[in-house]
Amino acid sequence: MSEQLKPLSFHDWHDDIGPVLWWEWPIKEEPYVGSPLDLGRTVSFDVTVQIGVDLYEVEPKKAGMTGGWPWQDAGDEVLSYLFWLPLPDVNALDIAIRDHIRGGPDPMQDDGGDQQ
Description:
Layout lengths: L7 E2 L10 E5 L7 E3 L6 E11 L2 E13 L9 H4 L2 E5 L3 H13 L14
Antiparallel strand pairs: 1-6, 2-3, 2-6, 4-5
């Protein structure tokens, strides 16, 4: 298996690594992109209803958290099924996309080889 596709366990991650792709095994949905340090935010709604010229204020409701680390309250058993892969190198990805659009490598790009 290539190093790029070697999944790492939750316990192999540390905050110096930053955001990565996360899956809970068995895989049933797309990966989460982020880190265990993601906070998310509380969402609440203020609603005003207008009927004719009358305005009615509805008590604000908290809708809960949105975003953030989806496994915030997960126990050790769930975390033991959590795996991650590093995000791709965006510079290499940008070059690959440009090469694809261009139909091949940039002939003006230095490939690192010896030229005489």
